[in-house]
Write a structure and sequence with these properties.
With 168 residues, this protein is mainly beta. It is built from one helix and nine strands, in the order H-E-E-E-E-E-E-E-E-E. It is globular, with a radius of gyration of 17 Å.
Length: 168
């Protein structure tokens, strides 16, 4: 996970370009109490699920806590509805604590959920406008292995991961 010295690490340019070419990212905006939903398809054998949310937060008031002006949350739910939490650091009060994935992140404008050896299935990803006093807040979201940006009207679930050509 991230730390205060290196953040999320260096950018892997080829991987970033491949992700963009594959259409595994989107940009939109969120308002107070809004919810934006997409899905990520994880196939059997996929080694990792990774979902990253980022936004340019409006400038805050110096020396005021919390520093974050607009709190946008990344919520990832596995195929049976269990929440997977983003990386969260110990904060200014405890900067040496290693990043954990046990709670929501209310201090950063980049949130990332990583699940190693994920269960195959459809993961629901939500961007929630928890506290957006200066909005709407534009954001970027990327995900792998397969991001599905569905219509806001609804979604359908399937009873298996593959269907034969003659299957109804």
């Amino acid at each position: 996970g991230p730390d205060y010295q290196y953040g999320y690490g260096s950018v892997r340019i080829q991987s970033a370009i491949d992700l963009m070419r594959a259409g595994r990212f989107l940009e939109d905006s969120i308002s107070q109490s809004g919810v934006y939903r997409v899905f990520v398809v994880v196939n059997p054998g996929d080694p990792q699920l990774k979902v990253t949310l980022a936004w340019d937060d409006p400038p805050g008031t110096p020396n005021v806590s919390p520093v974050l002006v607009n709190d946008v949350d990344l919520v990832v739910l596995d195929p049976i509805g269990n929440q997977k939490f983003p990386w969260t650091l110990g904060g200014l009060h405890n900067p040496t604590v290693l990043a954990m994935q046990t709670q929501k992140n209310s201090v950063d404008n980049i949130e990332q959920v990583v699940v190693n050896s994920p269960t195959a299935g459809l993961y629901r990803v939500e961007v929630r406008g928890f506290s957006v006093p200066q909005g709407p807040q534009p954001f970027s979201l990327c995900a792998s292995p397969t991001l599905v940006n569905c219509s806001r009207i609804g979604y359908a679930t399937l009873d298996r991961t593959q269907y034969g050509c003659s299957t109804t």
